[in-house]
Design brief:
Blueprint (H helix, E strand, L loop, with lengths): L2 H4 E10 L7 E10 L22 H6 L7 H25 L11 H51 L5 H22 L27 H18 L5 H26 L4 H16 L1 H9 L3 H22 L12 H16 L1
Antiparallel strand pairs: 1-2
Length: 342
Amino acid sequence: MNEAGWRRSVHHRYTMKPSNNKAYSIHIEFPYFYPNSTNPKPRTPYSMIQYNPKDWFTFIFRVHKGDTIRILFPLMLGIAAYSGIIIFLEKEYFQLSENSPLKHVPLMHAILGGVISFLLVFRTNSAYDRWWEGRKQWGDLTNNSRNLALKLNALLAKDDLENRNFFRKIIPAYAFALKNHLLSSKANWELFDKEVENHITQHIDKEKHIPNQVADIMYQRIGQLNAQGKLSDLQLIFLQEELRSFTNICGACERIKNTPIPFSYSVFLKKFVFGYVMTLPFGYSFTLAYLAIPVVVFIFYVLASLELIAEEIEDPFGGDTNDLPTEKIALNIHHNVDNIFN
């Protein structure tokens, strides 16, 4: 069965009446995928690669979707051709002797090799720290969503189906709103995929910050329950910590996404790697002759791959295969909250 046959949309509409006595409605729509069970299938192609870290054979002899060699292959061919030309000119055309000063170029590479290694390690570690910090923030969002649902499930009356159903849908809606807010390829106002219409209507301003507006809806409903006497002042304070954490998590994710590695550092490292690799054939031609071609290509592959990996993981909220599976985490939040209220 294809994906279209699995889709089932569940619609919920709630009417809210804030302090200004002006009622408005909220329409939340969740798409599911049911092949023949209650386990949903991820709705977008943006999913993190799942792998067995002990399977060496697969890693070495297969070119995976996230493998840097797919991106670098044209450049590797160009480096190979360049190295071949340099070696041909030195060995065949100019016929440089063993006493040529160019023979000592590898001494420069030996000195700079430690510097470039240090810079690449620092670059990769900085990028991974950003990736891991993003994962911790989404882990906190999962836990706080569960905690808020558990508290509301305990505080709200069992027969208060309107409010229970409202929070059962609005809490995971924040995770979906934040997911699409952080996706570079998505418009900031989208709450779910483009194919899903009427996610939140009438009161959401598409030009403004969607996660903040979803959080504001929850704040207003909590305040309304307090005003109606369904929640005491102490219980209101009890819930505000969880609500505040949503905005804190959003701000932390935005800080990661909107503050890349400094431009000058990134440009310098790329120029350094390029210059280092382009000078390798001049010295290696004397000791390795034409065998220097695969050696230079392999060195370029290693150094450039580290920079590419760092570029990919420094923004953990994109749609790349090595980015965080925010879609999966958001769906997990939805299932957890749904199970708590049910």
